[in-house]
Amino acid sequence: MATIIQRRRAVSINPLKSSAPLGAALAYLGIDGSIPLLHGSQGCTSFALVLLVRHFKETIPLQTTAMEEVATILGGSGNMEEALLNLTRRVKPRFIGIASTALVETRGEDYAGDLKLIMDRQPELAHTRVVFASTPDYAGALEDGWARAVSAVISSIVLPWSPAVTPFRQVNILPGVHQTPADIEALKDMVESFGLYPVVLPDLSGSLDGHVADAWIPTTMGGARLEEIEQMARATHTIAIGEHMRAPAELLGSLTGVPLTVFPTLTGLAPCDRLVALLSRLSGNAVPGRYRRERSQLVDAMLDGHFHFGGRKIAIGADPDLLCALSHFFAGMGAEIVAAVASTGNSPSLDAIPAETVIIGDLTDLEDAAREHGAEVLVTHSHGRQGAHRLDIPLMRVGFPIFDRLGTAHMLSVGYRGTRDLIFRVANLFMGQMHDHVPADFADVLPAPIVEESSHVSPPATH
Known about the structure:
Elements: E1 3-6, H1 20-28, E2 34-39, H2 42-56, E3 63-64, H3 69-74, H4 77-90, E4 95-100, H5 102-105, H6 111-121, E5 129-133, H7 142-157, E6 170-174, H8 181-193, E7 197-200, H9 204-207, H10 226-230, E8 237-241, H11 246-256, E9 260-263, H12 269-283, H13 289-309, E10 313-318, H14 320-332, E11 336-342, E12 357-360, H15 363-373, E13 377-380, H16 385-391, E14 395-397, H17 415-432
Parallel strand pairs: 1-12, 2-3, 2-4, 4-5, 6-7, 6-8, 8-9, 10-11, 10-13, 11-12, 13-14
Helix pairs in contact: 1-7, 7-11, 13-17
């Protein structure tokens, strides 16, 4: 069991975590026809919007209640009501997800109660589903905001079980915030290949997968449909990924009675075997031949790649569940986790990380620990590039945000194929750092060339 170390600093020098409101907004973006609304100042929303646009390279329909000094002191329910009415009249979204920020939470108003009063007295909002999640910046990070937003959607939209619910060959999937659109697409494809119907909440594979629509619309294009979210009670099972999704999954189970399974990770041979076995049992079908072949390819990739992983010293900084997944992946391939830094301590998964210590800190802590233990690669998001440069080691970009590389939405790391591709990605990173030797490299170790003395004697000089 890892020892958890909580750093106590007056200031974060180089932040690792992203805020909880940003995580909630990201979750709301996985719902079709939605607009996330941050209840706070324009600056809070602008900063989140910049990160989302740079990460996904897509248009992001993020809005704000634009709190200013007077509203902050006297109360912000009027700003919330005005924002909801403006969005409904101009954009006509099907869903508006509200996430609070530290600015309004510090005042301690009952915004959930205010929202209920607003909905009761404004008939214009009758055809728009509005959900509120409490996500102050000072409580948690990206994972926490994502999970709270999903819980808010479940409690507000999912219909509870009743005798009238018709069972269906449906599987609910609650992905973690660290799953990319490509990961979610692969999970949906896997469920469908067993003859089951996947309902994903939130579904970024439909809204932020990088497609070009026929016409511009001011809301999200694709994602989980409200009609399917309402009918999650008809599923035979719920699959959640990551410990931060356990609370939403248990909430869904209490409402619907649907049994659930929480996977700490779906990267690696053993977790993939568990998932395939579960889907086979739920469907009553044999495992398709394609997965038997993909599993064989993964085993071969592990054999090929372990030469490049064995004994390598790895430093990882990420949100807890992503940190846990990557740590087990590297340790399973024979590498050593010499530095593990988590963005927040609000997760039981930190105890299971295969490292001596886990630091709750920032990128400065990660850089210091990597330097102290001689790490050979830095694993974190794009804000770690300066630290990797100072350490003179390669940076493997993971998590959020990744803004200096293309194709982030299509990076796959779940399932047999995703794990195989991740092995090749890391092994190629190590191989790219290998030095191609030239003769000059051996100048100090090769013996000096032997010069033979000539037997020819020069004739005496004549004058």
